[in-house]
Amino acid sequence: MKITSKVVAAVAVAGSLFAATANAQNTFNYFTTGQFSNNLGVTSTCNDATPAATVSCGSPSGFGLTFNGVAVSPFGYQSGSQLSFGTFTPTGMGSATVSGNDVTFKLFINQTNPTTGQAAVAGTFSGTLTRGNGGSYSDLYWMPTTNQVTIGSVTYYLQGTQGTPLDSLAVGAEFQTSINGKAVVASSTVPEPSSLALLGTGIIGLVPVFRRKK
Questions:
Q1: pTM score, whole prediction
Q2: Which of 103, 120, 189, 203 is deepest in the core (most CB within 10 A)?
Q3: Cα(155)–Cα(182) distance, integer angstroms
């Protein structure tokens, strides 16, 4: 029996369809929002009632922190992609010391595909942030209560340096500090039944070709 160009082409088509389907199952997309809460009971601008892409926490003079979320990517992401979940940026001049539950921040991960959903990571701040003409200083840390959340088939991991789980994030006084991590799609390692059926259909379509040649 000779394998002809038609057979090769048919196998190639079936394989490409399977690869395209499997690749689609590995993709996801998301955007992030944030929400500060001030539990000190003093005048502050960080009583954000609802999550938003940009939120700030600080004094009426403008000193404090601003969180900027990330927007939906026009291309989406592949399973295992390295991600940014947003950035903290210090603003204004002044000094503040917080501990315990004085000021909290909640990160919201909003998934748009393969399924829609939302997951939140809450955390507290501890330390001192100072910005002024005499210099800037920070030993402020944001400490999330968890470093991973799952939405549908996608698990999002918050990571520190060298890919370690994020237990605390040092917030700089003079630069943006990014919340980084990655996400893994559960179906990326095991093809769904629909993908296997698609490949099987392509192979079955080759049977008449083999019979004619035989």
A1: 0.77
A2: 103
A3: 8
